[in-house]
Design the sequence.
């Protein structure tokens, strides 16, 4: 036994890679083409769910309906002021800003960078995230400065009988 | 036998474009630019038949293939 083992060269004396086949680790032209064509197929199939979700969002199928919720009375919010509330659930903090006599905008105010609460700074007419100085445009909710790259989700509001109501959450449209 | 590398180079280009557009696709999805996502999805899907076309063309050309 020891005699026979001694005849096997040291580099071949193993259990896992003990078969030598010519060019077993080489890939020829056709093999390479096959692999890349297959990879292109995998990429194409992998893109489908992203495209599907994007199409669904664009067609507005992902919009959800919530019961309408009273935010504040008209007399409690002056022009240029803001009010915090939560919509649609009690854990989704939101911010209502009265930009003009009859112009109200509301956004979910978790910063789209790291979810710090965004504040309305009246003097600068901007929504500012204090954590990393992200700034958002009050008219559209679009990020204008700092780390955030996604807009704040807008809440559709309705003025009805001397009070402001939150109706639904809208995707950013630009 | 000396052969042209057009097919191989074309295939490499397709692989490169696939990687680039998939990366852009994921980024634009994250930024919620959904129409850009649809465009990149379309490009990625169109690249697949092009790759198949190149593969077919190349395998028809080759008479002697080793391995």
Sequence:
């Amino acid at each position: 036994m020891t005699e026979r083992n001694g005849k096997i060269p040291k580099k071949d004396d193993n259990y896992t890679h003990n078969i030598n086949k010519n060019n077993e680790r080489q890939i020829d032209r056709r093999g390479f083409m096959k692999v890349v064509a297959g990879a292109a197929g995998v990429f194409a199939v992998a893109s489908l769910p992203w495209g599907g979700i994007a199409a669904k969002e664009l067609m507005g199928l992902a919009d959800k309906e919530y019961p309408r919720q009273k935010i504040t009375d008209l007399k409690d919010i002056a022009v240029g002021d803001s009010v915090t509330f939560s919509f649609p659930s009690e854990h989704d903090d939101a911010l209502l800003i009265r930009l003009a006599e009859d112009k109200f905008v509301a956004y979910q105010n978790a910063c789209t960078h790291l979810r710090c609460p965004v504040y309305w700074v009246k003097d600068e007419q901007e929504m500012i995230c204090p954590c990393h100085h992200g700034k958002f445009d009050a008219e559209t909710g679009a990020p204008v400065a700092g780390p955030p790259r996604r807009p704040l989700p807008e809440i559709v509001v309705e003025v009805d009988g001397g009070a402001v109501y939150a109706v639904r959450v809208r995707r950013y449209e630009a | 036998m000396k052969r042209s590398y057009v097919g191989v180079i074309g295939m490499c280009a397709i692989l490169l474009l696939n990687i680039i557009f998939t990366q852009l696709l994921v980024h634009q999805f994250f930024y919620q630019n959904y129409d850009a996502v649809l465009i990149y999805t379309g490009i990625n899907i169109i690249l697949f038949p092009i790759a198949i076309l190149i593969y077919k063309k190349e395998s028809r050309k080759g008479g002697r293939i080793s391995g």
Q: What stands out?
A: Residues 6-59 of chain B form one domain. The mean pLDDT of chain B is 86. The interface with chain A takes residues 3, 7-8, 11-12, 14-15, 18-19, 21-22, 25-26, 29-32, 34-35, 37-38, 40-42, 44-45, 47-48, 50-52, 54-55, 58-59, 62, 65-67 of chain B (CB under 8 Å). DSSP finds two helices and no strands in chain B.
